[in-house]
Amino acid sequence: TQKFKSGLEKTSASLVGAMDSVFSRSKIDEDLYEELEDILIGADVGVNTTMEIVDRLRAEVKERKLKNPEELKPLLSEILVEILKDGGSGMNLNPDGLTVILIVGVNGVGKTTTIGKLAHHYREEGKKVLLAAGDTFRAGAIEQLEIWGDRVGVDVVRHQAGSDPAAVIFDGIQAARARGVDILLCDTAGRLQNKVNLMEELKKVHRVIGREVPDAPHETLLVLDATTGQNAMQQAKIFDEATNLSGIVLTKMDGTAKGGIALAIRRELKVPVKWIGLGEKTDDLQPFDAEQFVHALFV
Ligand code: GDP
């Protein structure tokens, strides 16, 4: 909880004062709703999601016959938590056998770092973890993954730069089976200059995983950089078409005052945020918790 709070300080610093000004108004009227809308949109909650939140708030105020703006605070928290929780947010792990997790995302969003952090997280839980270096395209990507592997004490299955990513992942699966691995984390390329090629590559990797391991990938996580705001939404749409995302990792939440993007993503993409990145260190990745998140933002 403390980690959540300090990691989300920038967003909370910009929200707390603004929200207090709403809740300390003299009455609940149109001006109040407008001010609230402006705050939410300013925090990157997105126009549609903001409208939905405010509409729900209005309906509840009417139904409960609320008069005092102070009473809106717990109500708003409730609505935000409901939106973020919709559909759950836990990881789908295979309880008796290999879990394959496919990680996708554009270069620079924090994909490699996230894989390192996830590897660390599952190792701490006592699981056996293996990495597969499926970004064979970007110079240095394989080495960078190996550095993370060393750092957290996890092996990396790799081929040469330029080789077929699907073949690397295939080998990763065979190695995982042979070594009794619990969790295989698969890195992928993130070049968006050639979108069509990349999406074909990801589909192929996805197919190979599905063919080799029943019900896999158990998770396909898209890594998004929270500081890129509505750009992140665009990326999500592109990747979702190719790979059928099961969850989002929202990185660099420590570096933005606009953490409201988590709500926009949840609502507009219908994909749950499962993890948030709150810094560059190994343990700066937290499972997403709706209550803690909302609490950290403006309580
Ligand atoms: P990739 O190209 O997607 O693999 O991105 P990297 O994993 O190399 O990360 C790019 C930069 O973002 C690095 O400097 C990371 O340390 C940094 N980074 C990744 N995640 C976070 C995070 O949650 N918070 C902060 N502040 N920096 C992060």
Textual characterization of the structure:
The protein is α/β, with parallel strands linked by helices and 299 residues long. Helix content is 52%, strand content 12%. The chain contains 12 helices and 8 strands. It has helices spanning 2-7, 9-23, 30-42, 47-63, 72-85, 111-124, 141-152, 165-178, 195-212, 230-243, 261-269, 290-298; strands at residues 99-104, 129-132, 155-157, 183-186, 219-225, 247-251, 273-277, 285-287. It has an 8-stranded mixed beta sheet, sandwiched between helices. Helix 6 packs parallel to helix 7. The chain is elongated, with a radius of gyration of 21 Å. The relative contact order is 0.19. The mean pLDDT is 94. Residues 105, 107-113, 190, 251-252, 254-255, 277-280, 284 line the site of guanosine-5'-diphosphate. One of its GO terms (biological process) is SRP-dependent cotranslational protein targeting to membrane. It is found in: Cell membrane; Cytoplasm. GO terms for molecular function: GTP binding; GTPase activity; signal recognition particle binding. Part of the signal recognition particle protein translocation system, which is composed of SRP and FtsY. GTP binds at residues 105-112, 187-191, 251-254.
Give descriptors for this structure.
eight-stranded mixed β-sheet, alpha/beta, 52% helix, binds guanosine-5'-diphosphate, 299 residues
